[in-house]
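Many introductory courses stop at the sequence. We go one step further.
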Amino acid sequence: MPRIVVGLGNPGPEYEHTRHNAGFLVVDLLGENLRASYWKDEAGAKTAIVRFGDEELVLAKPQTFMNVSGKAIAKLADIHGAAVDEIIIVHDDIDLPPGSVRTKRGGGHGGHNGLRSITDQLGSDAYPRIRIGVGRPPGRMDAADWVLQQLRGETLEDFEAMVPTGAQAVMHVLEHGIDSAMQEFNAG
């Protein structure tokens, strides 16, 4: 039974360069690094099966909007026989400073509608998470407007610079487990 790495984001070009698509960017880089040759439509997600050592790994990007992404993830878990703790979720997190990457096992959704949907659909919040820091919005700006804002120039470059660290965190979880990843990535 393969493990599943899910990057959260919103489908469509209008969301491509937004903070909310941090998970998509990390999974795209993993696909590139692990030589994903074919992405297919499966259970409401774009998926690719790659080799990771002796095992298969499913990379997934739900193609529903983030606040209902749990449905696609639950279907993928069913299809591939993955337990909740074998599903790694990569997502943006406004409670972390921009550019930071942290790992976590379980915990609440912290107001993140994607995590809320996943927990509701899986019936558990015990899945490992790779949290990509995007910071809080300035002033009175709405959090949804902040994470869906189109990034350009230096702001986009800074945002994309954390993607390799997010991919490293996923690989660390896969190779050494979430406890080791928490020690490695949460120390700073």
